[in-house]
Amino acid sequence: MTGLENLSAWVVVPVALLLFLGGSIIFVGAFGLLRLPNFYQRIHGPAITITLGAGCLLVASMILFTAVEGRLVIHELLISAFVMLTAPVVAMLIMRAAVYRDLRARRHLGPIYPRARSGD
Question: What is the pTM of this model?
Answer without folding.
Answer: 0.75
